[in-house]
Design a protein that fits this description.
Number of strands: 21
Largest sheet: 7 strands, mixed
Number of helices: 19
Oligomer: single chain
Radius of gyration: 22 Å
Distance between the termini: 58 Å
Shape: globular
């Protein structure tokens, strides 16, 4: 199947705008990633709300596995928090609800009336986000679907179930539900009981590297894969896989930025930080590979630019970035974490309105708006990394920027300038690489997390950006975007 000393793994990597199946050839000094198949992920607006086209995604996965050819194992990662409900016979009860659906509006206040925000944060370590699975399940209470459900599977676990017929709940993704105790790595049953959430809906927990079943005969026939083909649990939250692929040295003091539709900015820790100051700063403690904690903040990310391009009916970002590079620095800035940017819609209009509300100049052309987005993201990255250092009492000397944003040289340089420390950009396909390497470890590749990161550093193209420019200009711009909106007490 593979050359002597190497093995081949398939990484199913499902993002919020596209999915792909990648193949990774891995050996002691070999790590080669190839895209086998890419397919769109187009959510659907139905009369009842925004839904994922999960059947279309599953069809794309099957087509991708056929294109991948023989593999030693496969693993699945995706975005977090969303789920499918299954009936007693295992059939899906409707398309999964999209996390940007409006059904959770006002639900947080209902939850906080029973469990105050401080108690909720101490119990789970998870930041407030209106789309957390906890709020989705409270919003679903009393609905026919939830009443009929006998099991609940997070998105990557749902795909794995259709491939293998076996159900499980992978831990790194489960930690994003806001129902796991980050200290114990197990369900917080008292919390779920207080909110009327039935944890019996969830399948048993799995950890990265655990076996997750074997492809069903019908799946093998559809994909043409010779069997048996094991499915291996990976860091099924794509951010967990991406952080596992950060090419940091063993003694490097680093922060990470996982960039794409979202920017996830933070530190890798040994234990959660659940202080009141951490909650007020809206930092989260998600579980990672090998018992690590991903202490991070969610930032709106390149979603802002993606939605602008959708409004402008543009598909090529290159001319926009060229125009943006010619624009004055920090002339137009907004708070990239502001909640008004969460929903789909007229993003250029919202960005202009946010600039207008601060009394500053208003961007009007696509180039001006693109520069506003990139400067604002760099400021958000700066703020999150500085606050993470303060809250965790951990200094950093370098920022590793992984994911799709690593291809955006302007964003990388602006982030280095804003943070005042070097940025090492790459790998761009971090989630798929982390997915592949967790499988490789489970199937005989020796080494700990640090060793797999060294393999990435030796084999993948990386670009280093040194900070430049005037630090006082970034200080002044940061003061303009300070978010004065407190979280509810």
């Amino acid at each position: 199947m593979s050359a002597a000393g190497t093995k081949t793994f398939a990484a199913v990597d499902l993002g919020a705008s596209s999915g792909r199946v990648m193949t990774g050839r891995v050996g002691p000094d070999t790590l080669r990633l190839t895209e086998a198949h890419r397919f769109p992920n187009r959510p659907v607006h139905l009369p009842e709300g925004l839904r994922w086209d999960i059947l279309g995604l599953y069809g794309g996965v099957l087509d991708g596995l056929r294109a991948a050819g023989p593999v030693d194992s496969l693993g699945i990662d995706s975005w977090a928090v969303d789920y499918g409900l299954l009936a007693a016979d295992g059939s899906l009860l409707g398309n999964p609800v999209h996390y940007r659906d409006r059904r959770t509006e006002g639900v947080a206040e209902q939850v906080w009336a029973t469990v105050p925000p401080d108690d909720l944060y101490r119990a789970t370590g998870i930041q407030y986000a209106p789309f957390n699975t906890l709020y989705q399940l409270v919003a679903a209470q009393g609905t026919p679907q939830l009443a009929s459900a006998r099991s609940l599977l997070l998105i990557p676990d749902l795909i794995a179930y259709w491939l293998t017929g076996e159900q499980g709940t992978e831990l790194t993704n489960a930690s994003t539900t806001q129902l796991i105790d980050a200290r114990t790595g197990d369900w917080n049953r008292p919390l779920a009981d207080r909110l009327g959430i039935d944890l019996a809906l969830f399948a048993p927990l799995r950890r990265p590297g655990d076996p997750a079943g074997t492809l069903l005969p019908a799946v093998q026939e559809r994909t043409g894969l010779p069997g048996p083909v094991p499915v291996t649990a990976v860091g099924s939250h794509d951010t967990a896989s991406a952080v596992a692929a950060v090419p940091a040295g063993r003694r490097e003091r680093f922060a990470y930025l996982c960039t794409g539709t979202w920017s996830l900015a933070g530190l890798e820790l040994d234990a959660p930080v659940t202080t009141g100051a951490s909650r007020a700063a809206n930092f989260t403690n998600e579980l990672g590979i090998d018992g690590t904690v991903r202490f991070l903040r969610n930032i709106m990310g390149l979603w802002l630019l993606q939605e602008c391009m959708r409004t402008w009916e543009l598909t090529d970002v290159t001319p926009l970035l060229a125009d943006a590079a010619r624009m004055p620095a920090l002339r137009y800035v907004v708070d990239a974490a502001a909640p008004e940017f969460l929903a789909p819609g007229d993003m250029p209009g919202r960005i202009a309105a946010a600039c207008r509300a601060t009394g500053g100049p208003v961007p009007r052309t696509p180039g001006e708006i693109t520069r506003c987005v990139l400067d604002s993201l760099a400021l958000a990255h700066r703020r999150a990394i500085r606050e993470a250092q303060h809250l965790a009492d951990r200094e950093v000397d370098v920022v590793h920027l992984v994911g799709g944003g690593a291809r955006n040289a302007l964003l990388c340089q602006l982030t280095a300038d804003a943070c005042g420390v070097p940025v090492v950009a790459g790998p761009a396909e971090a989630a798929a690489l982390g997915n592949v390497l967790v499988q490789a470890r489970a199937h005989g590749l020796p080494g700990d997390l640090a060793a797999t990161r060294e393999l990435i550093a030796r084999t993948q193209p990386l670009t280093r950006y040194e900070p430049s420019g005037d630090p006082t200009a970034w200080e002044a711009a940061a003061r303009r975007t300070e978010d004065a909106r407190p979280l509810p007490a």
